[in-house]
Amino acid sequence: MAAHPDDADGRGASDTEGAAMRAMRIAVAGATGNIGARTVAALERAGHDVVRISRSLGVDLITGEGLDAALAGVDAVVDATSQETADLDEAVARFGATTRHLLAAEERAGVRHHVLLTIVGIDRVEGNAHYAGKREQERRVAEGPTPWTIVPFTQFHDFAATMTNWTEHDGVATIPPLLVQPIAPADVAEILAEIATGAPQGRYRDVAGPEPQDLVDMARRTNDARGHEVRLVPTWSSLLGPEMAGDVLLPGKDARIAPTTFDEWLASPQ
After folding, report:
1. Model confidence over 30-67: pLDDT tens digits?
2. Are strands 76-79 and 113-119 parallel, antiparallel or unpaired?
3. Rounded distance between C-alpha atoms, residue 63 and residue 81, angstroms
4. How many CB atoms within 10 Å of residue 95?
5. pTM of the model
6. Domain residues of the chain, as ranges?
7. Distance (Å, whole) CA 115 – CA 203
8. Architecture of the domain defined by 15-267
9. Cβ neighbours of residue 33 under 8 Å, at least 6 residues apart?
């Protein structure tokens, strides 16, 4: 890994001068989302100037409207966007369009580093619309004009709650019996912020939480912690099929392991 920019020992410039030299202008695409908002906060805590990119804030990645103004003077871009569609062709088209517009605007602005949040195991799963879209996104970044780092993360600690919300009907939710090694959203944001302030690294190693978990058990424990009563039915639903069974979604052996356990996340304010 490249050295983190906080490696100064304080024997040169003053702390204030050092902070000023390290400060960067970094744009976060998907800045109002689950990970994007946390990444914005992590970068700002580190003293960086953050540009928020979101349709609700006047920048439309689907059309490219507002991107040139948003990326003026930007050193690096973190792409934490997501596209919610179950149609494979639509997912590929939407991820492709947003990435194409973002990379073209980065080239015009002279952006030096594009950091993409992606998912562990998407190259091992066929037929899933979201994963197909992410593969298209990765392809465009790797072939694009901006030096890049692609960072694959495992599912987040709140993934079980998301699945419950997606499938719950009349007090019953279907949950696929996935084996995952989930990571805290706050840890994802901190790692993205760290990588964005360093040099481009190409394809980064897998990043995961500390412990494998069963998604059905995660859903049960999350619902219990939140006081949400729902009957869980373990099944391979239409959302996620048996092609994701076994160790398909687990990180590689050289994975970077984030610190926060699922139990610690459950006990913390959400």
Report:
1. 999 999 999 999 999 999 999 999 999 999 999 999 99
2. parallel
3. 15
4. 26
5. 0.90
6. 15-267
7. 10
8. 3-Layer(aba) Sandwich (3.40)
9. 54, 80, 81, 82
Residue 109, token pair as written in the block: 């602005």
Q: Write the secondary structure of the chain as one string of H (helix), E (strand) and C (coil).
A: CCCCCCCCCCCCCCHHHHHHHHCCEEEEECCCCHHHHHHHHHHHHCCCEEEEECHHHCCCCCCCCCHHHHCCCCCEEEECCCCCCCCHHHHHHHHHHHHHHHHHHHHHHCCCEEEEEEECCHHHCCCCHHHHHHHHHHHHHHHCCCCEEEEEECCECCHHHHHHHHHCECCEEEECCCEECCECHHHHHHHHHHHHCCCCCEECCCEECCCCEEHHHHHHHHHHHHCCCCEEEECCCCCCCHHHCCCCCCCCCCCEECCCCHHHHHHCCC
